[in-house]
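step=encode ok
step=design start
structure_in=
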């Protein structure tokens, strides 16, 4: 099979979803919590980002196929846990893309509301359909699309944030440490700025020379992500308006609001497409290993199945039976489960004491976030957990 992803297109796949909706909302959340001390939290979380990226990139280069990290989990802890990791990620993508699509819909509607009146759930459904088409179009197109969009976003945010800081008469730099409780809570909130590295392994079959490409692409993406988050967050907390769209005024002028809405919607599409594509590739391998009929070996079928499930979740939300917060909460608990199993595997594989201490810190953060899960999300999490462990992982291609 011809490999379709190189260093730059893999970088696009990494940067787009990891910046994702986080760069849109997290700087304001951090500032609301800590004020001028927010930049301290960002420096700390970006330090953890380096570790998170390194651990999962190192694991990705030894992944055997598009099952990704779940295959390593299965090798280390047994097939049942490999199946469990895969099921966590799949369950997360049943719900997570709906929340991100609804977020994208808000920005899209802000641009078209003057001309058309469209329900948010209809717009979100259109976003999900576009993302499914991007996934079906092939990984080469996905990589190029993500690379172009993430590059434009990074350049505009860096240029706008840099110009904003340059124009200010003076900058506010924290000269003391924030209250430990407020700092801890903020770190929990902005931890999601680093989630996404764990799905790299689900694209490994499409990557040229994974050992070289993944590590090089990780270094490029990580540098860009850290620079964008730190400069944008610092500019946000120093700008008089404390408004993300206003950071683009130096480069987009009176169109800054529209440009920001376009970038926000595009990043949401990147996030949904990349995570959906990861589960599509993982599930296709699992279907093949399970000996299912040939039709289940096609990625387009899995993409359509995921789209149908997302449509059902969206319908439940539109009918008032499932709140936005519930959708986010369910997805978060599943993503945490997948990340915890991946990090635990990394702890077993990587013997460097500093890396192991760092993994321990990450696991504690994830556990702290998990404790905030809703009762409904916890029930579904337990159902997925016990259901996966009861059935033989090998039987289902785990």
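sequence_out=
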């Amino acid at each position: 099979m011809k490999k379709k992803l190189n260093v730059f297109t893999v970088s696009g796949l990494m940067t787009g979803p990891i910046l994702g909706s986080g760069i849109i909302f997290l700087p304001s959340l951090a500032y609301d919590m800590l004020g001028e001390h927010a930049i301290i939290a960002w420096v700390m979380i970006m330090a953890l980002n380096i570790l998170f990226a390194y651990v999962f990139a190192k694991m990705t280069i030894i992944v055997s196929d598009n099952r990704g990290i779940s295959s390593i989990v299965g090798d280390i802890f047994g097939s049942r846990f490999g199946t469990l990791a895969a099921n966590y990620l799949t369950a997360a993508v049943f719900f997570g893309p709906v929340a991100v699509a609804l977020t994208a819909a808000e920005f899209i509607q802000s641009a078209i509301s003057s001309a058309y009146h469209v329900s948010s759930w209809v717009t979100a459904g259109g976003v999900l359909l576009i993302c499914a088409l991007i996934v079906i179009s092939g990984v080469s197109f996905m990589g190029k699309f993500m690379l172009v969009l993430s590059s434009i976003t990074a350049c505009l945010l860096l240029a706008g944030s840099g110009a904003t800081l340059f124009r200010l008469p003076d900058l506010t730099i924290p000269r003391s440490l924030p209250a430990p409780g407020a700092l801890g809570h903020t770190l929990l909130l902005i931890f999601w700025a680093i989630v996404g590295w764990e799905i790299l392994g689900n694209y490994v079959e499409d990557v040229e020379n994974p050992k070289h490409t993944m590590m090089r692409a990780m270094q490029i993406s990580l540098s860009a992500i850290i620079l964008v988050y730190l400069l944008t967050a610092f500019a946000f907390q120093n700008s008089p308006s404390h408004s993300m769209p206003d950071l683009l005024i130096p480069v987009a002028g009176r169109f800054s609001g529209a440009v920001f809405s376009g970038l926000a919607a595009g990043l949401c599409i990147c996030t949904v497409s990349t995570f959906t594509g990861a589960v599509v590739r993982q599930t296709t391998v699992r279907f093949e290993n399970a000996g299912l009929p040939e039709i289940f070996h096609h990625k387009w079928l899995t993409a359509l199945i995921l789209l149908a499930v997302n449509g059902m979740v969206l319908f439940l939300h539109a009918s008032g039976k499932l709140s936005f917060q519930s959708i986010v909460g369910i997805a978060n608990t599943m993503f945490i489960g997948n990340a915890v199993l991946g990090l635990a595997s990394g702890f077993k594989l990587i013997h460097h004491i500093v890396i192991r201490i760092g993994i321990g810190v990450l696991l504690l953060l994830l556990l702290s976030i998990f404790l905030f899960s809703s009762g409904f999300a916890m029930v579904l999490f337990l159902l997925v957990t016990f259901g996966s462990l009861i059935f033989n992982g090998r039987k289902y291609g785990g």
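step=design ok
step=annotate ok -> The chain is about 75% helix and 0% strand.
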